[in-house]
Amino acid sequence: MNALSVENLCVKINNRHLIENITFNVEEGRIVALIGPNGAGKTTLIKAVLGLIPYSPGTVSFFGQPFRNVNSHFKVGYVPQRLEFDRTFPLTVSELIGFTVPPVYSFSFFKRDKKHINELLEIVGAQDLMDRSIGGLSGGELQRVMIAKAIVNEPKILFLDEPASGVDIEGQERFYDLVKRLNKEKGLTVILISHDLNIVYRFADNVLCINRRLICSGSPANTLTDDVIKNVYGEMMGAYIHSCHEHD
Amino acid sequence: MNTISEFLAYPFIQRAFVASLIVGVLCPFVGNFVVLRRMSFFSDAISHSAFAGIAVGALLGIDLSVSSVVVAILISMLIAVLSEKTSLSHDTVIGIAFSGSIASGMLVMGMLKGYRADIFTYLFGDILAITNTDLLLLFVIGVLCISALLFFSKPFLQITFNRDLAQVEGINVRLFEYLLFFIIAIVVTVSLKIIGIILVTSLLVVPAAAAKNLALSMRRLFALSCIFGLVSGITGLMLSVYLNTPSGPTIVLVSVGIFFLTMLKRERWN
């Protein structure tokens, strides 16, 4: 079954096309990487799919149902690119995750379900961050917390917009290992934007190359050829296949 | 010199004391959202739009509290709609609403005949002139607004933290933003008689900003802001009675003093 179907999606702002006529499907339980140069419209595509910016024409459906008509927003998790927030915002990790823990409407915000929140933080290996202020977290720690927040309501599909940007190499490895584990253990469909083709080769089942339009799609090994990479990123780029593969 | 208990024997001081307790909790509680969302200019615009409402009320001969609330709510909704539907920045829309309200208020005031002392009560506030009806209204609105903010605290705080995340999680961002604007407009206008149009934003912003200097969690922010609001309200009222100074400015100056103390503490941490 397709977890996500996008048909003829166009996003136009001030008479300028940011996305033109993009059509693709994502099978349930797959990890799909969106790649493309800066300004190619990757974040715009994810935001349009999530209903954060308007699109016209086009249709988006999750698990066969139009997104806007489904009362299942909680089936979708989202970790935005470089979360912008006031670093002096007085908020602990448990409070941030607590925003998403049901019930959404109650007088009990200040009484948090710490056991549930601790379980979520354990999944992402961040249980020691429970009472830390979010302003004091490193990039890698914050991304783990954001993943924990994104999976609170057991989403079927997770969108990650350059989730490991600004995170050191060790942090990136831990992060993508976690994403892979969630994908395997919980059958989570993952759609991620990445500029790191090495990560894409190692972790993604499928690749969508985008430069305002869909340039190509398929498995990383078959799709990310030297010609395609030069076509997408320019003549200065080429493919270098690392020896270690997760999919072997 | 009279003791506090002697002062508290006077009914108008008792009413002022209770009013300072209520606004001491209500304004900072709502003010936390104003500070976290950087909306102090918005609350300033709302308090000044109430000035236009008061002038119109005086001209038409209707209750000034009612006319100020109605105009403040209308202006807050206008700001929300224009910010959403036009390409103008939120800041610009607020600036236009602010200037337009003040100008309209002054224009209408010019049409009034004779001296209207009641209008100046709203302009500068007079906690000692609070009636039992004012107190009851303040209490009911305070309970309703704090209950709404508590019940919807998760969506309100989620939107304050990050709008996109809130929307993806299924929160009706537009509805809650309008509701927050509505609550701020109501709280600002019911506090006018106590603290005055000119200073009401201070009581919303200053205790909350002082609490933000010390708080590392949302729980502490709300608790500290209410404590600072209460201390400012009661200490300011007592000082104003002892020193025979206007109550509103004295309350605000106490809260500003608390803010600087917390700022020093924060700087020492840093």
* CATH T-level fold name of chain B: ABC transporter involved in vitamin B12 uptake, BtuC
Largest sheet of chain A: 6 strands, mixed
**Which term fits the overall shape of chain B?**
globular
CATH class of chain B: Mainly Alpha
Largest interface: A-B, 34 and 28 residues
Order of strands in the sheet with most strands of chain A? 6-7-8-3-9-10
Helix tally of chain A equals 8
How much helical structure, as a percent, in the residues of chain B? over 70%
Largest sheet of chain B: none
- What average pLDDT do the residues of chain A reach? 82
What would you call the shape of chain A?
Answer: globular
Quaternary form = heterodimer
User: Please, what is the CATH homologous superfamily of chain B?
Assistant: ABC transporter involved in vitamin B12 uptake, BtuC
N- to C-terminal distance of chain A = 24 Å
N→C terminal distance of chain B: 43 Å
The name CATH uses for the topology of the domain at 2-83 and 155-233 in chain A is: Rossmann fold
Q: What fraction of residues of chain B sit in β-strands?
A: under 5%
Low-confidence stretches of chain A: 243-248
Residue fraction in strands of chain A:
15-25%
SSE sequence of chain A, one letter per element:
EEEHEEEHHHEHEHEEHH
3D structure, described in words:
The complex is a heterodimer of chains A (about 250) and B (about 270). Chain A is an alpha/beta fold and about 250 residues long. Chain A has a domain at about 1-85 and about 155-235: Rossmann fold (3-Layer(aba) Sandwich). Helix content of chain A is about 30%, strand content about 25%. Chain A contains eight helices and ten strands. In chain A, the strands form two sheets. Chain A has a six-stranded mixed sheet with strand order 6-7-8-3-9-10, sandwiched between helices. A four-stranded antiparallel sheet of chain A has the order 2-1-4-5, with helices on one face. In chain A, helix 3 (about 115-125) crosses helix 4. By secondary structure, chain B is an all-alpha fold. Chain B has a single domain, classed as ABC transporter involved in vitamin B12 uptake, BtuC (Orthogonal Bundle). Helices cover about 85% and strands about 0% of the residues of chain B. Chain B is built from 13 helices and no strands. Chain B has helices at about 5-10, 10-35, 40-60, 65-85, 90-110, 115-125, 130-150, 155-160, 165-170, 175-195, 200-215, 220-245, 245-270. In chain B, helix 2 runs antiparallel to helix 12 (about 220-245), helix 3 (about 40-60) packs across helix 10 (about 175-195) and helix 10 packs across helix 11. The radius of gyration of chain B is 19 Å and the shape is globular. At the A-B interface, strand 6 and helix 2 of A face helix 7, helix 8, helix 9 and helix 12 of B.
